Amino acid sequence: MKMKNTLLAAISLAFVAGAAQAEITVGVNVSATGPAASLGIPEKNTFALMPTTIGGEKVNYIILDDASDTTTAVKNLRKMISEDKIDVVLGSTISPNSLAMIDVVAEAGVPMISMAASSRIVEPVDDKRRWVFKTPQNDAQMSTAIVEHMINAGVKTVAFIGFADAYGEGWWQQFSAIAEARKLKVVGNERYNRADTSVTGQVLKIVSARPDAVLIAGSGTPAALPQKALKERGFSGKIYQTHGVANNDFLRVCGKDCEGTFLPAGPVLVADQLPDSNPVKKSAMTYITKYEAAHGKGSVSTFGAHAWDTGLLLQAAVPVALKKAKPGTAEFRAALRDALEGSKEVAGAHGIFNMSPTDHLGLDQRSRVMVEIKDGGWKLVK
Amino acid sequence: MDFQIAMLLGQDGITNGAIYALLALALVLVFAVTRVIFIPQGEFVAYGALTLAALQAGRIPATLWLLLAMGVLAALIDGTAALRSGATRKLPGVAGWNLAYPLLLAGLFYTLPLETLPMLAQVLLALAVVVPLGPLMYRLAFQPVAEAPVLILLIVSVAVHVAMVGMGLLFFGAEGSRTPPFSDVRFEVGPMMISGQQIWVVLASIVLIVALYQFFGRTLYGKALRATAINRNGARLMGISPALAGKLTFFLAALIGALSGVLIAPLTTIYYDTGFLIGLKGFVGAIIGGLGSYPIAAAGAVMVGLLEAFSSFWASAYKEVIVFTLIIPVLVWRSLSSHHVEEDE
Q1: What is the predicted ipTM?
Q2: How many contacts, defined by CB atoms under 8 Å, are there between A and B?
Q3: Fewer C-beta neighbours within 10 Å, C or N terminus of chain B?
């Protein structure tokens, strides 16, 4: 009997000790391998730079790789929820994974901040999506920027070539709708695969339609292939890329064939060229300095900055939620969700976040700039 | 579509088809001699191209460490086996190929100014690193299960493929690379612009095919491989070592793969995982040849290249669907036209 009492005392002591040093547990689902690895790796690196205490509480990051695979993403998430009792999940890198995670977080009542672009992750904010937030700009915002730039530059006809996957399809839907609304004539719609070794067929078809401009909707270095093929066939019109190419590897692979290309991007890409009055400049420069200090000059990418922004949202919301409940409880998770939804004027590396019950992205026009590739570097278009 | 576009598409298709043809030949060869359906064939394409790209950027390619590690493993296994059976005179050979060669290569890499070497030397160095991975892979992964049924060999093959893709990501990173072309020559033939690199690809493929033909027809080793392919037990009775035949086959497959990679690296961006899809298209070609006939496999692979080029013009979103659906009628036709006897397992 005495033995049993001691044991009970020991167990209860352990519980009290546990509660006294309640840690905030942050689950991270990132696609560090597989097709999205070029996005996931800088994101993973970014999490290592995040603060280890927020609002005086220790933060414990659990980082898992979902291998760009939907099933693994969900499996990782369930594991983190049941075994690690996470308070919030950040991720995943890509839209299909993030969409698959929505059901699970809604069921468990865990707030989630995605680093993927698709607007469907947070729209419309319904019973399930009230738990879900995201940091990257919607494709629609970027499409609008491109169409606007095309019209101002006197472009009348445009052809489209994109990835034969969700990325290209999503862009095609957004872009074709906006282009039609603005009376821009779309004369070609082609697809290619990330791993293709040749796009000659598609490019020949586009060139024979004689468009004023071509939009290439691909991400990372594979987006250089159509551009090189277009130049090879002597295409002299304007070429637009999407913000998916905004990393230095793209410049390395594409070389001089990419001179004069236009793309919309988050302000972090050209942070040092922004005027000092721009509210994003300071937070973007903070991120760039930190990342480059750890990984070398020129290593920073806009994808890592999306991960950084999830951390900034968290740093703004956690202190608010800590006033209401202790980490590790359902009340804390609910309070954190409310606090995230109430984010106001949070300056991230990609823009200023103003969330609301109907807008779980919260970015406005300040979150994108037009950039031109000039002399092998990114140049802000004023 | 007018004549000019058809010509351009044909030119593109033949360039790609030439590479697929090389890979199809390697697949047929490996299957005939060792009964392995060689899924990692494509990885050698990526490894060859990316090793060359690393050399040209002045970096020591990580494939060198892989070669060293696999060499140490193979030396340990073969060394202990030789010691146990008392065949000590085999030891220098084992240590020489598995340890001294990679170390010598490593020494070369550290002393040579990699970035400024002439292109040919860089290509040779890249091949010197990547090609020996083939026989070592056979020694470590396939030789211990050489007598197993085709299905088990296929499973091992898938495992090796997954391991190689994973290591590729670790070695070369997620982003791709391109290398400068072998020559900047361009020929204008009517409306067509033929780049020097395309000629290189087609010529190198033809030379390699002729060389293989000569190798199998004229040399003792080539005849030994053919004998093993026709009847494994019979060849063994004639004193042909199956292990040697396996290693030689994998050496050739790795050579063909790495050379294809070096050839197409200036034409397109190569990623750590590009090889699989290229290898798969070579596989479609090999299937058309029933995994047995070299000329039909090569012709089939060129057809895949052409089909790919034309379908990317007509219906780019369905290109892969069209190429891979080709397998179905081919399989139906083959199963109807040939009387296949199940191999005794």
Answers
A1: 0.75
A2: 98
A3: C
